[in-house]
Amino acid sequence: MSGAHARGRGSGRTKPAAPKTVTATAMSAGAPAAKSGAKLDLAGEITASLVVFLVALPLCIGVAVASGVPAELGIISGVIGGLVVGAVRGSTLQVSGPAAGLAALVAETVLEHGVATLGVIVLFSGILQIVLGVVRLGRMFQAISLAVVQGMLAGIGLPLMFSQVYPMADAKAPGTPIENMAGVPGLFADILTDPQAMIATLLGVATIVLSFVWKKMPGPAKKIPAALVAVGIGIAVAALPGVDVKTLQVGNLLASVRLPGAEQFAGLADAAILTSILTFTVIASAESLFTAAAVDRMHSGPRTRYNTELIAQGAGNTVAGILGALPITAVVARSSANVQAGAKTRISRTLHGLWLLAFALLLPQVLALIPISVLAGVLVHSGWKLFAPEEFPKMWRQDRGEFVVMTVTTVVIVATALLEGVLIGLAAGIVLAALRMSQTVIRQHVEDDTAKVVMAGNATFLRLPQVIEALESAAASGKPRIRLDLTGVTHLDHACRNQVEEFTAQQRGLGLRVELLMPGPAKQTRTTPEPAPAPTPPPPAPGPDAEWFYLDTGPVPTEATGYAQRPPLVG
């Protein structure tokens, strides 16, 4: 099961205003609205929780194995993610547990400091997360573009599919996503020569097909989760004579709990351990809240309360640290399964933790009947839904710049890891936004003895090459006068301003007459004084038979005009 994890996507007009108000309320405070207008579907929540349980179980075991710790510690972290984090009102549908995004870091930490010290690191990372949530730093993670979110989901879904192809054939995944992809042809060759691997693969394929078509079944049968049906079929096939496929094996949870002692707490004086605490805190917080932004886009229910969710993640990691378990983050694969299964409240994600605990403690023999290939098939289906290949051509048609950001995010996540991919995707999105905001229109022409350059829009350092080219072209025209009109520029940053002023001073030093008009009337510089305004002529004298009346023509004239300080008389 080492491959069983994802690499961690107000004028009085009341009628027009009403729909907008309702929409804003539904999006920002969906929970109260849902409670007041909708009836709780407890059966639907239980069904969704079972689906999430079936997705979470192999992930918990796979992440634990990949992290170099006993599989039971992964299940303990999954239980905490459901019962502790799931019970807090941070996010409604986001599901937490051990995540593959931290597996490499956990494995390195365990190798260097030991499993017992891992508990202390996770404990204090949780406390630090709670502090960050209390000081309200969670909101900053909402600044993430749709292209980055979709790229993140695709970057998680694609490696998830390829990693689960191996356990679907009762084989071990080579390791990284790139290695998993490259090893698929060899895997297929092995399947064709091994009858038992063929049976396991067929069970996984049947699970994937059921996941896609089961909702189209007529009658009440379609209300049963496809994953549950697939598990039932898998258990029946695995029990047949001559069938020898791998099944889940879970040991004693209570015996796996390792409370940190005084020796481990004394390690807090080590700078390396303090660095690990900060590293775990940053990565776990970023992954959880980036995932929250992605999950919020999957449904129309209540939005995530980012600071509260950060506190919830901290509470979960604090408990996990005390029990010596793996660190916890929000996980897209489980959250996506939760949304797709029709969950509407926190009940489903909390119950999934209860199922993990109950089966691992009370019914481990039942888990031992479930073929690993069936659970791998469930995860392949979840990976495909996350990858959503149809979103790429759709984004290409809508916005090719955003398509590039989305593709870059996906590729980097697949090649490296979740956090690195999201950060590079965000950087690409910022560069794209800066280029689009820095739209400078430059017009050049020669009129009589004057070379004119007119600029409009946003002139920033990103457009400095075009600005320099226009200025040099004006200087090379050979005209004795240069007119630079920047009054249409809405934003002029320091780099462009400095370039224009240096050019002006240089050309004046060469004897040219340069007229520079900067944005804003107070910043205009001219080579010739403005002509004085012509005096306003006095009104004509009225005739002897004229009838007089007052006409309000606006502001009262001043004494400087020579008129009386009252509305003028008009005949």
UniProtKB/TrEMBL annotation:
<feature type="transmembrane region" description="Helical">
    <location>
        <begin position="404"/>
        <end position="435"/>
    </location>
</feature>
<dbReference type="GO" id="GO:0055085">
    <property type="term" value="P:transmembrane transport"/>
</dbReference>
<dbReference type="InterPro" id="IPR011547">
    <property type="entry name" value="SLC26A/SulP_dom"/>
</dbReference>
<feature type="transmembrane region" description="Helical">
    <location>
        <begin position="354"/>
        <end position="384"/>
    </location>
</feature>
<feature type="transmembrane region" description="Helical">
    <location>
        <begin position="197"/>
        <end position="214"/>
    </location>
</feature>
<feature type="transmembrane region" description="Helical">
    <location>
        <begin position="46"/>
        <end position="66"/>
    </location>
</feature>
<dbReference type="InterPro" id="IPR036513">
    <property type="entry name" value="STAS_dom_sf"/>
</dbReference>
<keyword id="KW-0472">Membrane</keyword>
<feature type="compositionally biased region" description="Basic residues">
    <location>
        <begin position="1"/>
        <end position="12"/>
    </location>
</feature>
<feature type="transmembrane region" description="Helical">
    <location>
        <begin position="144"/>
        <end position="162"/>
    </location>
</feature>
<feature type="domain" description="SLC26A/SulP transporter">
    <location>
        <begin position="42"/>
        <end position="409"/>
    </location>
</feature>
<protein>
    <submittedName>
        <fullName>SulP family inorganic anion transporter</fullName>
    </submittedName>
</protein>
<dbReference type="GO" id="GO:0016020">
    <property type="term" value="C:membrane"/>
</dbReference>
<dbReference type="InterPro" id="IPR001902">
    <property type="entry name" value="SLC26A/SulP_fam"/>
</dbReference>
<feature type="compositionally biased region" description="Pro residues">
    <location>
        <begin position="530"/>
        <end position="543"/>
    </location>
</feature>
<feature type="transmembrane region" description="Helical">
    <location>
        <begin position="73"/>
        <end position="95"/>
    </location>
</feature>
<feature type="transmembrane region" description="Helical">
    <location>
        <begin position="271"/>
        <end position="295"/>
    </location>
</feature>
<keyword id="KW-1133">Transmembrane helix</keyword>
<feature type="transmembrane region" description="Helical">
    <location>
        <begin position="115"/>
        <end position="137"/>
    </location>
</feature>
<feature type="region of interest" description="Disordered">
    <location>
        <begin position="1"/>
        <end position="21"/>
    </location>
</feature>
<feature type="region of interest" description="Disordered">
    <location>
        <begin position="522"/>
        <end position="571"/>
    </location>
</feature>
<dbReference type="Pfam" id="PF00916">
    <property type="entry name" value="Sulfate_transp"/>
</dbReference>
<keyword id="KW-0812">Transmembrane</keyword>
